[in-house]
Amino acid sequence: MLSSFFIGVALLMGLHVQTASAFIECSVLDYGAVADNSTDLGPALTKTWQECVIPQVTTTVATDVLLYVPAGNYLLASTVTFDDAANWNLHIAGDIYLPFNPDLTGTMLTFENCENILLNGPGAIYGNGYRYRPDGDLTLYPSRPRLIRFQTCNNCEITQVFLYDAPMFHVTIIGDNNVAHDMAIIASHIGETDGFDMSGNNNYVHDVSVENGDECVTVKTPTNGFLAERITCKWTAGCNIGSFGSGATGVDVQNVYYSDVTISNSDAGVMIKSYPNCQGTVKNVTYTGFTLDAAAYPIYISAFWEGGTDDTGTLEISDVTFENFAGSGTPTRPGVLLDCNKATPCESITFSDISLTDTTADTFTNACGTGLSGLEAC
Ligand SMILES: *[C@@H]1O[C@H](CO)[C@@H](O)[C@H](O)[C@H]1NC(C)=O
Ligand SMILES: *[C@@H]1O[C@H](CO)[C@@H](O)[C@H](O)[C@H]1NC(C)=O
Question: Which residues form the signal peptide (predicted)?
């Protein structure tokens, strides 16, 4: 009697200790997933999340509750949305493959209205994007799927998961205080394969590498506070701001800082790109420590990136600093090209230590600043 009382107490304490130390692993294999590369992982992710993860989240430490995809090969044949997700960890140790399915559309993994989610590897997602773009044709399956989206998410982290060849964009993050770091994206050298598209406040991308044919680490509106450090971009369209879309009003991008970026074989180095009919503000942007190798348009601000030449816009671009740029552009393009709206010239564009080879002469239209010969003072 007495001893069973003590066993009972010990059991209770044991349970209590287990909950408090709180490491709970919810494996997709217990909820219908099969690592056979043919059973759809999508429903198992949803079921694991609903039946195991949600009921067991009791702390705000994301790594306390894992939605675990163990090592093995999985087919992800349907999209999954984690809505109102908070305080858990999608831990992908396996390799996830997308099928080719012309009807597959949307985003494969969406986190929506989320808070403090960790998405990490060491696994990988293989998008098989090339199958959706036979012979490089981007028009055949225009609704082909995107890979990962954090939509209205704060304090999230994505790291150490490899992403290969999404049918469309790889990672979109919208929200505040999110971090993407220590990961690689590798895709075909073709358009609509964006690496990281970031918007919101105080997001941070560091120690990532992107090989694709479109945006590397790019800032979208609205953004207030963005930091990118130690970025490598291969065959990309560069680290850009924009574009903002035709007729965009209320563009608001401020306090952006890029540092220690290596860009090779690229369609651009850094661009602020807009349509000539946009309105709003881009200000206080710093690019420092860029190493370029065969980057067309190494430094380019264009209000006329797309949308013709009809100069009706009033996008105010000011306080943009380019410092410590070294390496090569391409022999047919200017090293620095500033092409701004007449009504709102680009102001306080500052250059220092710009040393670019294999370029044509810099050109400046409706822009003023310091640090390059031929650039008007403001
Ligand atoms: C898994 O299936 C996908 C698509 O159906 C295929 O591309 C991939 O090579 C397969 N992976 C393995 C390891 O067999
Ligand atoms: C400009 O942006 C940086 C961050 O990149 C920030 O530290 C600084 O305070 C901003 N300056 C102004 C005048 O807002």
Answer: 1-22
